[in-house]
Write a structure and sequence with these properties.
Elements: H1 22-32, H2 39-70, H3 79-108, H4 114-118, H5 129-150, E1 163-164, E2 168-171, E3 174-177, H6 178-196
Antiparallel strand pairs: 1-2, 2-3
Helix pairs in contact: 2-3, 2-6, 3-5
Length: 207
Amino acid sequence: MPQDTIIPPSDIPDLSSLRAQTEWAALLRFFVGGGSSDAVTHALFVNAVRLHDAAIQEYGLGRQAILGFHSCAPDQFGISYIAQATTHFESCIWHFERFIKHARALRSLKSAEIELKAIIPRDLSFLNQSVEHQITQLRHTLAHLEGAALRGQLPQGTSVSLMPLEHGLSISNHVILWSDLAQWLCDAHACIKKLAGFKSSPPEEGA
């Protein structure tokens, strides 16, 4: 990958068309008994939808902050916009990592409906081990460096922030490309949209 500049791009993917699904899932639960009939499964299901909605929301806020940076007047530095973007993208990564763990838990839960598990096939991009590793490494590195700073052991010149740079989100030597992150979030949204509309089938008579 080419050497990154410290200026984030003005054209990172726009995911504003990915609508939140938490309210829809809640309405279906209330009116038609949507979701899982198993308590543990439904708790994971609700949290997975909520966490993904949060990841998308934080991504969008981070993107808005970057656009604000690029629309600054010539006599403004726009540093506050970059700080805002950093905070929102850190939250995006944190929520998305937790979402992936919930999705994996739903797939492996014995009490979960087979039909529900089928909505989360193992070949989804965000369930790829290398993808999860990239996201986890980014967050772990952030936590590790922050911990080192709190102990007064941070190496000189080391940043403890997840920086939105030209090609992607970066901290230390870890980078997630903008195009990759957008694709993973889009693939996860397609999955979540189906999950939000899931309704457990009633048990067969005599079963």
